[in-house]
Task: inverse folding
């Protein structure tokens, strides 16, 4: 579907397949990558406070560690803003949260972000709203727009796996910088989020590594 002011919204596997076909026709390197990866995952997830909190929990820890922490938070009922604000630091530390992430979680809970309103905002407005909260960087905000809101034309050029995947697929001498990759990704509009899915999938295939979230 298309939303005025936002562009295409990815809602199904068919949307991802459409974007992948466009990319493959647009650049033969993407076509070759798609042959190796096969169909790309939808990867949509819920939006709202819990989705952003989960992203904060996931920062700078392994997939297994973040999943364990999130499971403890859910079991303790600590995934909503009011619960975070009323919980003690000891409650949150018992779930595996670091001191810094406890501060970030409380900042998020106190931010007053109206998550339903983000659904109708352009990508850059969503990003600017989220990065005003301490602990939320541009990468986290871009991932939220991509997977929680389904924006089809957003990229995350600061992601190291995307940088490495582009280095391999495009046969570059070194990983592109964040700014360089941001410029490269403009050529993949209006399906930049599908390009990200393809590059992440290609990273798995090319590097035979697991654990990218």
Result:
């Amino acid at each position: 579907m298309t939303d005025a002011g936002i562009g295409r919204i990815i809602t199904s596997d068919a949307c991802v397949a459409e974007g992948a076909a466009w990319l493959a026709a647009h650049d033969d390197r993407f076509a070759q990558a798609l042959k190796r990866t096969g169909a790309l995952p939808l990867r949509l997830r819920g939006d709202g406070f819990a989705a952003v909190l989960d992203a904060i929990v996931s920062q700078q820890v392994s997939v297994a560690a973040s999943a364990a922490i999130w499971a403890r938070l859910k079991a303790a009922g600590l995934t909503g803003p009011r619960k975070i604000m009323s919980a003690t630091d000891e409650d949150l530390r018992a779930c595996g949260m670091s001191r810094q992430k406890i501060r970030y979680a409380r900042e998020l809970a106190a931010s007053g972000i109206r998550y339903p309103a983000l659904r109708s905002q352009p990508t850059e407005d969503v990003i600017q709203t989220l990065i005003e909260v301490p602990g939320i960087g541009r990468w986290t905000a871009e991932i939220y727009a991509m997977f929680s809101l389904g924006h089809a034309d957003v990229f995350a050029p600061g992601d190291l796996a995307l940088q490495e995947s582009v280095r391999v697929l495009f046969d570059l001498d070194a990983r592109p910088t964040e700014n360089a990759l941001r410029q490269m990704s403009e050529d993949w509009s209006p399906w930049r989020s599908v390009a990200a899915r393809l590059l992440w999938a290609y990273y798995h295939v090319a590097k035979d590594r697991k654990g990218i979230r």
